[in-house]
Structure formats: C-alpha cells, structure tokens
Amino acid sequence: MILRSIALAGGLAGAAATSQFPEFSQQYMQRLGGAVDALGEVVADFDASATASDLGRDEALAQMQGTVFLERRSADMARSIARYERLSSDLVALEGQGPFMRAYNAARFTDQEIAQSAWQAYQPAVPVSFAGLIFAGVGFVLGSMGFALLLGLLRVPFRRGRPV
C-alpha cells in the first residue's frame, strides 16, 4: 500500500513537471526569436563592414589580428556568428511547430542563456489545454513507472530467498 502511494506521488510529480513543457517551450521560442533577431543585426553589421572592405566574412575575421584586442574581438565575433547560425537553424526547425513537435525536437532547446532567461520569467500554471493535459498524462505514467521501478530495485536486496 505504501509503495503504491509512493508510485502515485511519483506519477503526480511527473504529471506536474511534464504538463509545464508546452508553455515553457513557448517562452523559450519567444526568447529564441529575440536572440536570433539581435544576433542577426550584429552579424549583418559585421558582414556589411567586411563587404565594404571587399572581404568575405572569413577573410575579415582572419584580418582581425596583430593586437590582443583584435584577436579577442575576432574570437568573440566568430562565436557570435556560430551561435547565430545554430540558433537560426533551431528557430527554423521549431517555428510554427505545436507542443508535440517541439517535444519531438527537444534536442534543439540547448541554449543555456535562453533557457535560463525563459525559466526566470516562467510562471508555472495548471494546464488546461489539450497539449498540457496530454503531457500531464504522459508524465503521470512515466513518473509512476519510474518510481515503481526504482522502489522495486531498492527492495531486491531485502527480499528473502524464495523456494523454487
């Protein structure tokens, strides 16, 4: 009886946690779009400066050397360009997708800066949407099964030998 209660509590915890994914992923998407816009401006400005000097992006980055400042600036710009390209790719893959497809593409929710910003502004809520309820149901099943499995494994050393 106690084990079933603990498994039920695990299911409820799983339901509460996973039911929040649709709204959190929406918050993440909004911040992802903002980050892509901001980085796009920086990259476009850099590319315009390079073009005005008859240079490509890689050539312009390669010419940023000779002083510690220029080398650091070149490394910063290369990181910004790489992040812009990665986030742009994530945005294209996730844009217009519903919560189920965003969950399918959860590996694209990897930018820690965006995730932390979204989490700080996020307000958990009771899910009343179809997607929220489905995520809650899946979380309940996974949480119950996970706790039941964990408790079963913890009980193994305490079982008495059963005659065959």
- The helix fraction, in percent, is over 70%
Q: Low-confidence runs (pLDDT<50, min 5 residues)?
A: none
End-to-end C-alpha gap: 26 Å
Mean pLDDT, all residues = 88
How would you sum up the global shape? elongated
Structure description:
By secondary structure, the protein is an all-alpha fold. Helices cover 76% and strands 0% of the residues. It has seven helices and no strands. The protein is elongated, with a radius of gyration of 24 Å.
Give keywords:
164 residues, mainly alpha, 76% helix
Give a brief outline of the structure.
This protein is an all-alpha fold and about 160 residues long.
Set down the secondary structure blueprint:
Layout: H1 2-18, H2 21-52, H3 57-63, H4 68-94, H5 99-104, H6 112-121, H7 130-155
Helix pairs in contact: 1-7, 2-4, 2-6
